[in-house]
Design a protein that fits this description.
Layout: H1 6-16, E1 36-44, H2 50-63, E2 69-75, E3 92-98, H3 101-109, H4 111-120, E4 124-133
Antiparallel strand pairs: 1-3, 1-4, 2-3
Helix pairs in contact: 2-4
């Protein structure tokens, strides 16, 4: 008798579930263009400085003008219930949507983005980026 392996198990599991399964982006077809979601969190060096916050916000607002950006949102931590899984230590977040990876790549090298990084990077102590694609 042949010992079942992971591939056989997954194949049978997909058949039994009617083929409904979540597919990690790395396993998804590279040929299909997927929307890219780019979420960036900023921590200010001087978190109590209204002037620094306003400079960062002005810089972030300039990024919305980049042609590749389809949707754009700037936010601050919400006054939601404190929970262990919620991080409210950042000052500002920027959420950008692009048609595909090509659009996100164009955004990264765009003169407005380069100017933003040059002008505003002295304001932040930390930056964290999360990129995702639609499944």
């Amino acid at each position: 008798m042949k010992r079942p392996n992971r591939r056989t198990f997954l194949s049978k599991a997909m058949t039994l579930s009617g083929g409904i399964t979540m597919v990690p982006a790395a396993m998804a077809s590279p040929d299909k263009k997927r929307q890219v979601i780019h979420h960036v969190f900023f921590w200010l060096k001087n978190p109590n400085s209204t002037e620094d916050l306003n400079k960062l916000l002005d810089g972030l607002r300039s990024l919305e003008k980049i042609e590749a950006v389809r949707q754009y949102h700037i936010g601050i931590p919400a006054l939601t219930e404190a929970r262990a899984v919620v991080d409210k230590t950042y000052a500002v977040s920027a959420l950008s949507f692009f048609d595909d990876l090509e659009g996100q790549n164009a955004y990264q090298v765009h003169p407005l983005h380069k100017k933003f990084v040059e002008t505003c990077s002295p304001l932040w102590s930390r930056i964290q980026v999360y990129d995702a694609v639609d499944l």
